[in-house]
Design a protein that fits this description.
Layout (H helix, E strand, L loop, with lengths): L7 E3 L5 H11 L4 H6 L7 H18 L3 E5 L4 E6 L8 H6 L1 H8 L3 H13 L8 E8 L8 H16 L3 E5 L5 H6 L3 E7 L6 E7 L4
Parallel strand pairs: 4-5
Antiparallel strand pairs: 1-2, 2-3, 3-4, 5-7, 6-7
Helix pairs in contact: 1-3, 3-5
Length: about 200
């Protein structure tokens, strides 16, 4: 598949399961998710799908920008400027899937989420990439880049910055090629895997 052949489409509410499956596959070896849902735990793949489908459902319910690419092997969840925060009502609404996903690690997962949100820049308003991933076996084909361009082109046209956190060092070069710069690296909860905060100024 060439870059020109990669189709990126805006997802609808009917696509929550496809978004969840694509992201679960992409994050199967992610260091932070490996810490929150350890390798070897019972039904780990199912737990990852439960979490990411829950997140996709929440994004779609609030009319955020969710994308599918490469016939469903890639997915991205974006928040438009000024809408990045996760309301307490959404956390409560998706509490049951979160418990199924994280089990006894739910408190740690919530603390990581609060830490991530606590360091999120408030101003200026910006596009926020919550999650982006490509299923194993389809990585390195330009699918992630195509999903980035789908929103970054809009950001550049409007003169709007963008922001993300990366929980996998392997993905930093992709983001850096698209203009993101690391602003901070820290260990989750002071003892977990590293998380990188990245900011991107619009290009003219």
């Amino acid at each position: 598949m060439t870059t020109a052949q990669i189709q990126v489409v805006r997802a609808t509410r009917a696509d929550a399961d496809r978004l969840g499956s694509a992201l679960a596959g992409a994050f199967v070896d992610d260091p932070v998710f490996g810490w929150l849902i350890p390798l070897g735990v019972e039904r780990r793949d199912e737990r990852l799908r439960t979490f990411f489908t829950s997140m996709a459902r929440s994004y779609l319910r609030r009319d955020k920008h969710a994308y599918l690419a490469g016939d469903g092997v890639g997915a991205a969840l974006w928040s438009a400027p000024g809408s990045w925060n996760l309301p307490a009502t959404e956390i409560a609404r998706e509490a049951r899937p979160s418990f199924r996903a994280f089990g006894g690690g739910i408190i740690r997962a919530l603390r990581v989420q609060l830490e991530v949100e606590g360091g999120h820049p408030k101003d200026p308003k910006h596009w926020y990439l919550g999650y982006l991933g490509v299923a194993p076996g389809h990585q390195g084909q330009g699918i992630g880049a195509a999903m980035l361009r789908e929103v970054l082109a809009q950001a550049d046209e409007a003169g709007t910055p963008a922001y993300l956190e990366s929980s996998n060092e392997r993905n930093l070069p992709l983001y850096e090629r698209h203009g993101f710069v690391v602003t901070k690296a820290y260990q989750a909860l002071g003892r977990g895997p590293t998380i990188w905060r990245m900011w991107r100024e619009p290009t003219s």
